[in-house]
Amino acid sequence: MDIPAIIVLVIFVATLIVIMSEKIDETATALFGMSLAGVVLYLGLGISFDTYITLIDWASIMFIAAMLIIVAVAASSGMFQYISLLLMRRTKGNPRKVFVTFLLFVLGISLFLDPLPTMLVMGTFTVEVCSAINMDFRPLLISEVVVANLASIPTIVGSVPNLVIALLTGIDAGLLFIVMMPLVLILFLVTVPLLLWYFRDAWPEDKSYDTEFLFLIPPGSMIKSRRDFYLSIVAMTFLVIGFMMGVQLTAVALLVASGMLVFSQRRAKELIHQMSWETLFFLIGLFGLIVALVETNIVAELGAGLIAITGGNIVIAIIFMIWIPGFVLSPIDNIPVAAVLSELALELGSLNPVVPMALMAGTNIGGYAIPFGDAPNMIAMSLAEKGQKKITFMDFTKVVMPLALLHLIITTVYCISMTLLFI
């Protein structure tokens, strides 16, 4: 490893440490690290900054931007609140039915939504509805975080880390869903009974809550924009069909996102402002750092070293891809973890196509393993505090840590079993 490579590696590690410390804005840190790496590439290897910028995977950035627009329009339309209210009314106030119904809905929408907007939409609605019927919402908030993350595993649009991994490793969207959806169903069927048992004292089985007021609220009142509501339904359908037909992901996503903005008319500017621009620039910074790692041959050397360590053993590769992001690196935001390990997953993917899928599973599980592992966790805790029923770090950890470990074990066994299909 030459001097430029060593300096780039130091910059990369230092950037991750600062991001993990949360003392400086992560987007600013990533962009600063990328800029420093660009200077090293120019002085050490003669790669101009213009060339350096063009090497960034802009197709992935555009795809993620398009998905953020689609999510912004769908969430702002009130579509999810509308469906949630209809489901809530069918539970008739039975706490166990409320719990299972909400988690089933979170399972469904998390196949298409990142856990962060899922918790922003569902978390807020959960607190409002449960407070209105005097039902403790904290168990639901914690459980929704878990389900929102694990349900994101089988689709490339389920989370931003999924998008990063899929685009950098070339995972086939259809194959991913076929292989990993059964795992999600297994995890869900194992998790819900355990959560019901754990929170058994929160809602006595013989108690029902007064939900008559819910029948007084017209479901249509949840819809903030009928144009955006119907537009979101059509757009989501078109998006899924496009992905299933194997059309280029970026082209489909941009077509759908731009079409939604056009038909949103005057609200287009407002919706664009609602986009998570900090996420985009954060990814640009990270992608730039990854380019620097690639250009200095660090990724190639790490990949070769890892393949040498595994000795071509698929089981070891699967364990590495699941447990490193799912447990060892769980304190770090899962987006940089996904971006960094994707290059290694691409190298190890030559052993078996399930290897990069295992990385996707491990990254999503790592998102809820600890309270400060990801933004949706903090959203749930923040919403609980605003509702005057605080969720402490210990409260969260006691529930999710054992679940995450169980999920990692089940996922490891499942993924190793799935590799047999591709021998």
Topology:
Elements lengths: L2 H19 L4 H20 L3 H6 L3 H20 L1 H12 L4 H15 L5 H18 L5 H13 L9 H10 L3 H26 L27 H19 L4 H16 L3 H6 L3 H19 L2 H13 L3 H15 L5 H15 L5 H13 L8 H12 L6 H26 L5
Helix pairs in contact: 1-2, 2-14, 4-11, 4-12, 4-14, 5-6, 6-8, 7-8, 7-19, 8-10, 8-19, 9-17, 9-18, 10-20, 11-12, 14-17, 15-17, 16-18, 16-20, 17-18, 18-20
Describe the fold and architecture.
The protein is mainly α and 423 residues long. 74% of the residues lie in helices and 0% in strands. The chain is built from 20 helices and no strands. Helix 4 packs antiparallel against helix 14. The longest helix is centred in the middle third of the chain and has 26 residues. The mean pLDDT is 79.
Compute the number of helices: 20
| Cα-atom radius of gyration | 22 Å
Largest sheet: none
> Kindly state the mean pLDDT as a whole number?
79
Structural class: mainly alpha
Describe what is shown at a glance.
This protein is mainly alpha-helical and 423 residues long. It contains 20 helices and no strands.
Name a few traits of the molecule:
423 residues, mainly alpha
